[in-house]
Amino acid sequence: MSTDYDLIIVGGGIGGSGLAAIMAEAGASVLVLEESTEFRDRVRGEWIAPWGVVETKRLGLYDLLVRAGGHHLARHISYDETRTPAESEATALALDSILPEIPGPLCIGHPHHCQTLYDEASRRGAEMLRGVQVEEVVPGANPRVAYVHRGVRLEVTARLIVGADGRQSQVRKACGIALHQDPPHHMFAGLLVEGAEGWADDIQAIGTEKDFAFLTFPQGGGKVRVYGSYPLSQRNRFAGPDGARLFLNAFQVACSPENHHIVAAEPAGPLYSFFNNSAWADTPVAEGVVLIGDAAGYNDPIVGQGLSITYRDVRLVSDLLKSTGEWQPSLFAPYVEERTERMRRLRHAALVTARLEAEFGPDAQARRRAFHERAMTDPALTAHGIAVMAGPEVLPPEMFTEAHMDHVLGLDQHAG
């Protein structure tokens, strides 16, 4: 059966362009359809966990990202209102100790990250189109896509369509693939700031005080991507024209004195607030279609797994495609099986993190204090953090159960 392309990839962001680069280099004919004419800051992830860095190396993309300005973080500090800053800093985690030969998480600005991969895919021979309006996606034995580009409507066919078009995936909807979602736990907001040269370029931090939990990920050159969690009841807390300034003021907390550098910084992009929940598709595959990245389901952003998830998706799917010329839905069974368990484990890790770091009030404060004290003698309590950093597959299944969550939260301390 004659087709126009081997692969049509809808979405030219990190997942779409990353897969296009790999498959074009392998000799496949690839068309990428990207809606935007310019990648813009939409408060997306800029932090790749150490296990995600491993995936970039396996894909052969790591050196490209480093040349584009990616830099590693060296230390992680967990601040909390139940401890002094000195106590928190004394328990700093060396991030180069997580995985062998991985210096730590890798940070790179999201729009620049996307453009770097987009340009690389083009250099390797993929046909890249921007400003595209996809009108129709038709899965099946002879999948096709209808789109408008520069005022001209075209219809093309492929051996396989890849949905890499994000959370509101048009491809997923065209296939009738349902997306399941956890109920929201709290609100989550993000902002890029500049002028924060006082914040060390190699230190990431989290912390909770009163009704606000923060995360900071330096991007270099005085820029820091900052996030904040706050109660669902305060959904409009940072709305309006002064929202960005109110958001930065919330970083003024006693438990992390260095946050004054964040408070004094200036917004360098938009402030977006959204629900924190996870979402997943049971089977991100249909006849003639496979989904990757957020289109296939996404993790609660409180643990920053989006980029690592996407890079593993790209690696698994590209490995399968390169292994055979028979691109039937059954080919992706190993991908579906691995991704289902990976996302289940990461949902668990995110929920434990949310219940520890993004619940507020006296009971939550006492729970965190007890957690920090117990973790000094029971390292298993920090398993959710290991899953986030080293990858969910490195731990045994019992670390991802309701019983273990109750143990971490101390809910089993008085049982019976």
Primary descriptors:
416 residues; alpha+beta; FAD/NAD(P)-binding domain; D-Amino Acid Oxidase, Chain A, domain 2; 2 domains; eight-stranded mixed beta sheet; 13 helices; 22 strands; 33% helix; 24% strand
Report on the structure:
This protein has 416 residues and is α+β, with helices and mostly antiparallel strands. It has two domains: 180 residues, 3-Layer(bba) Sandwich (FAD/NAD(P)-binding domain); 127 residues, D-Amino Acid Oxidase, subunit A, domain 2 (D-Amino Acid Oxidase, Chain A, domain 2), CATH 3.30.9.10. It contains 13 helices and 22 strands. Strands 1, 2, 8, 9, 10, 11, 20 and 21 form an eight-stranded mixed sheet that branches. Strands 5, 6, 13, 14, 15, 16, 17 and 18 form an eight-stranded mixed sheet that branches. A hairpin with a 2-residue loop joins strand 14 and strand 15. Helix 1 packs parallel to helix 5 and helix 2 packs parallel to helix 9. It starts with a strand and ends in a 7-residue tail after the last helix.
What does the secondary structure layout of this molecule look like, with pairings?
Blueprint: E1 5-10, H1 14-25, E2 30-33, E3 47-48, H2 50-59, H3 62-67, E4 71-72, E5 75-80, H4 85-90, E6 93-94, E7 106-107, H5 110-123, E8 127-129, E9 132-138, E10 144-149, E11 152-163, H6 170-174, E12 180-181, E13 187-194, E14 203-209, E15 212-220, E16 223-230, H7 243-249, H8 260-263, E17 266-267, E18 272-275, E19 279-280, E20 285-286, E21 289-291, E22 297-298, H9 306-323, H10 333-357, H11 362-375, H12 383-390, H13 402-409
Parallel strand pairs: 1-2, 1-11, 2-8, 5-14, 11-21
Antiparallel strand pairs: 3-7, 4-7, 5-6, 9-10, 10-11, 12-19, 13-16, 13-17, 13-18, 14-15, 15-16, 19-22, 20-21
